[in-house]
């Protein structure tokens, strides 16, 4: 999506306020990069048919750096060359009052990411809001219940704010600074005020109602029907029906929630950056692989230890994932693992960076908002625009939990037995900082696979080449470097052009692959820069082409070596690219439901999780797994071991995701902010049924759970599991056709492109899935892919 990127972004029917507010956090087709492994010993029967919408409202979702995240990215300034490549510059903004040089107010094809600075934010956003307010007043004065007099001018207003604010917010995610934070914090209330004004516009709401009630409603195309329906529902969710004190209170809550979410994510980033452990004695980090030592030395050098080297140190360990994760997997020093683990699960939980009171206030305000809108809890608000209901989501999670539990118990017993056989003193009392370490040793022993030893086979350039070749085979597109065409925010960022079979550009995307702990959020995500739209086409072009960005946080090149990836990082790139494909390959010209826009949140992970499956397909894997020095292919026996290891500890990994999803629903359905049970009490209670080893009493992972407190996944984290049913079944269509047949793959890929990737939010996810698969989704492929059989025991 943490992935999300992944995110995550980025996403629903691009409705007024919610579209904009969701955008602000880091929406994210996001898409995030979590891998979950649903398992079941008995058939899962749950309906994916659309539910009937209840009376009032609906809302949005995203991701965290504890597992992965979903934010957004940026590009550069327009040039004549750029105009030749892209048909849709952003509408002109003729500046005045000394603002003519502000890059946020310029007409551009690709955003001027290289030119925007903190000093541009206050004057640029304020002038933008002033102009958009004028446009809104004019729209309300002249509005009629027709597409040209309602939807098209509305889309121009929504899109301009979305794109420009997206530039600012993206820079905050990838190029954070105190000055940028301060500027955003100052103008954010003004932006939210405009969003509320737009979302609560009675003339716009009444015009959509008039279209809905007119005789011409039935003659509208499906996409337009979806827009009308979603705008009406979203307007109610945005408080259009509230009056006087209720509306004033609602608006106060929205302002405060935005401020709190922003502060939450800043605290997580600052707490992650704050932890630094300098190690002088190499014995303390015995077991760390060469790549981790090189990164630790590089980090130490960047902090003033100029002579640091991988061989002689000193080494600096941080909580940034590329540093943290190898310690948990490989460090033989148990006390080091414990120290780093405890620091990680208590991030942003003390002192000036404590997110505990922020969480309490967020949950209290969300509940208050829900009640103002006529709902009993915030989960009902969140679910109003999703495929699932609360009951269906809880039913799915419980079926997966009970199916996963016995496998997870067996996982733990296997781990203890192995550790005991290796003479580990802690074998009978394994703790959280032991699990990953001994799991990796068991995996190496059982499958003879060492993930670090595989890195030389997965260099980033070769992985990207293989990924683009796969996209060509599946979807008949070509992807070419276009560096220099668009401005970028960092020299490591790559820019690409996507072309159809006739060599015509159809989309563009940015790729920011490497970790930069000092300025960049953790995790992985995808988001939109601009969406496809006929309304916003320029210079006689039929449509504006979509532009996306993908962000990862993998290990950067070290010395003269390219970025050498773990297999999990390979899966992450495939995941985020799946999100980007849905945005870029859309054939939907209605901008409010093009690409990832307008898609129900619990279906948004389908393309991303679908793409992960190809990492295990033999031809695809062999095309990317080439030794970066010798060009030697990954040995066949290693490939077979990777396949065999695919479901290693699947029960435990599934429970981890189920814990996150269950605590999310508990906090947004049953939690009473004024009751005796704290958020940590609830986490402990939920964990009794979702974790074989209960969390430490000091566990404060909720304080870094960006997905639900600073993103769009509030009461929506279950979506990862829900979408796995869809994605596994979609991939099974290729299995049924024959993965050993290029012709069958191309034919099925064409059908996938023309349905799942083409329709955007213009049709319901269930309709889209049936159009591709010929039937409704089945959980059977998911269970088969995870390879889990019933185990006799009780949950």
TrEMBL record:
InterPro entries: M3A_DCP (IPR034005), MetalloPept_cat_dom_sf (IPR024079), Neurolysin/TOP_dom2 (IPR024077), Neurolysin/TOP_N (IPR024080), OpdA_N (IPR045666), Pept_M3A_M3B (IPR045090), Pept_M3A_M3B_dom (IPR001567)
Keyword Protease listed: yes
Cofactor(s) this protein requires: Zn(2+)
Protein's GO biological process: peptide metabolic process; proteolysis
Every Peptidase M3A/M3B catalytic domain range: 327-787
Alphabetical list of CDD domains matching this protein: M3A_DCP
Residue ranges crossing the lipid bilayer per the database entry: none
Domain Oligopeptidase A N-terminal: residue ranges: 125-247
Entry EC no(s): 3.4.24.70
Pfam families on file: Peptidase_M3, TOP_N
Co-factor note (free text): Binds 1 zinc ion.
GO cellular component, one term: cytosol
Any coiled-coil regions, as ranges: none
Signal peptide: none
Catalysis performed (reactions): Hydrolysis of oligopeptides, with broad specificity. Gly or Ala commonly occur as P1 or P1' residues, but more distant residues are also important, as is shown by the fact that Z-Gly-Pro-Gly-|-Gly-Pro-Ala is cleaved, but not Z-(Gly)(5)
Keyword Hydrolase assigned: yes
GO molecular function: metal ion binding; metalloendopeptidase activity
Sorted UniProt keywords: Hydrolase, Metal-binding, Metalloprotease, Protease, Zinc
Family stated for the protein in its record: Belongs to the peptidase M3 family.
Stated name of the protein: oligopeptidase A
UniProt organism field: Phoenix dactylifera
């Amino acid at each position: 999506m943490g992935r999300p990127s992944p995110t995550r972004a980025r996403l629903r029917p691009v409705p007024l306020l919610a579209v904009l507010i969701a955008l602000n956090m880091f929406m994210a087709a996001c898409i995030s990069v979590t891998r979950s492994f649903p398992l079941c010993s008995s058939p899962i029967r749950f309906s994916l048919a659309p539910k009937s919408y209840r009376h009032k409202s609906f809302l949005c979702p995203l991701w965290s750096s504890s597992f992965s995240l979903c934010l957004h990215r940026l590009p550069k300034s327009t040039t004549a060359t750029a105009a030749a490549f892209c048909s849709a510059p952003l509408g002109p903004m003729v500046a005045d009052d000394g603002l003519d040089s502000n890059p946020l107010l310029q007409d551009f094809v690709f955003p001027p990411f290289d030119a925007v600075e903190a000093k541009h934010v206050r004057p640029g956003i304020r002038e933008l809001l002033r102009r958009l307010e004028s446009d809104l007043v004019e729209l309300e004065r002249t509005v009629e219940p027709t597409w040209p007099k309602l939807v098209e001018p509305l889309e121009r207003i929504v899109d301009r704010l979305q794109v420009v604010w997206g530039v600012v917010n993206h820079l905050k995610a990838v190029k954070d600074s105190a000055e940028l934070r301060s500027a955003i914090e100052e103008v954010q209330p003004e932006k939210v005020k405009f969003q509320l004004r737009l979302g609560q516009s009675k003339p716009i709401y009444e015009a959509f109602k008039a279209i809905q009630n007119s005789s011409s409603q039935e003659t509208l195309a499906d996409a337009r029907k979806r827009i009308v329906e979603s705008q009406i529902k979203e307007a109610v969710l945005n408080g259009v029906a509230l009056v006087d004190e209720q509306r004033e209170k609602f608006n106060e809550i929205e302002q405060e929630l935005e401020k709190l979410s922003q502060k939450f994510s800043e605290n997580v980033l600052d707490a992650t950056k704050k932890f630094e452990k300098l190690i002088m004695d190499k014995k303390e980090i015995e077991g760390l692989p060469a790549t981790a030592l090189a990164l630790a030395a590089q980090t130490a050098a960047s902090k003033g230890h100029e002579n640091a080297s991988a061989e002689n140190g000193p080494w600096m360990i941080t909580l940034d994932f590329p540093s943290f994760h190898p310690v948990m997997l490989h460090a033989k020093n148990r006390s080091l693992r414990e120290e780093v683990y405890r620091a990680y699960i208590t991030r942003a939980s003390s002192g000036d960076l404590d997110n505990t009171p922020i969480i309490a206030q967020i949950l209290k305000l969300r509940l208050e908002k829900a009640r103002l809108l006529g709902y009993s809890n915030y989960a009902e608000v969140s679910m109003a625009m999703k495929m699932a209901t609360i009951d269906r989501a809880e039913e799915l999670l419980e079926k997966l939990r009970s199916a996963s539990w016995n496998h997870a118990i067996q996982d733990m017993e296997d781990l203890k037995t192995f550790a005991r056989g290796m003479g580990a003193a802690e074998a009978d009392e394994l703790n959280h900082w032991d699990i990953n370490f001994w799991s990796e040793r068991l995996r190496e022993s059982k499958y003879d696979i060492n993930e670090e030893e595989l890195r030389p086979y997965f260099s980033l350039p070769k992985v990207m080449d293989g990924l683009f070749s796969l996209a060509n085979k599946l979807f008949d597109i070509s992807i070419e470097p276009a560096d220099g065409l668009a401005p970028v925010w960092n020299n490591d960022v790559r820019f690409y052009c996507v072309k159809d079979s006739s060599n015509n550009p159809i989309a563009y995307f940015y790729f920011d692959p490497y970790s930069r702990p000092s300025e960049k959020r953790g995790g992985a995500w995808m988001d939109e820069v601009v969406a496809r739209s006929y309304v916003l086409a320029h210079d006689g072009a039929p449509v504006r082409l979509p532009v996306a960005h993908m962000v990862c946080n993998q290990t950067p090149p070290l010395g003269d070596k390219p970025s050498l990836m773990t297999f999990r990082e390979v899966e992450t790139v495939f995941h985020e690219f799946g999100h980007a494909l849905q945005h870029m390959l859309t054939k939907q010209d209605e901008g409010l439901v093009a690409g990832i826009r307008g898609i129900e949140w619990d279906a948004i992970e389908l393309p991303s999780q679908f793409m992960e499956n190809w990492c295990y397909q033999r031809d695809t894997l062999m095309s990317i797994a080439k030794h970066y020095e010798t060009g030697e292919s990954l040995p066949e026996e290693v490939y077979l071991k990777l396949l065999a290891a695919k479901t290693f500890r699947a029960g435990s990994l599934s429970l981890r995701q189920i814990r996150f999803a269950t605590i999310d629903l508990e906090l947004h359905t049953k939690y009473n902010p004024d009751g005796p049970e704290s958020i940590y009490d609830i986490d402990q209670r939920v964990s009794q049924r979702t974790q074989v080893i209960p969390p430490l009493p000091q566990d404060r992972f909720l304080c870094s759970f960006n997905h639900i407190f600073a993103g769009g996944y509030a009461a929506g984290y279950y979506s990862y599991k829900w979408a796995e049913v869809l994605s596994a079944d979609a991939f099974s269509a290729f299995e049924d056709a024959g993965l050993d047949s290029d012709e069958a793959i191309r034919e099925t890929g064409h059908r996938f492109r023309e349905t799942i990737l083409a329709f955007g939010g213009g049709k319901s996810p269930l309709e889209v899935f049936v159009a591709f698969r010929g039937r409704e989704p089945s959980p059977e492929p998911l269970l088969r892919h995870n390879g889990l059989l019933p185990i006799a025991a009780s949950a």
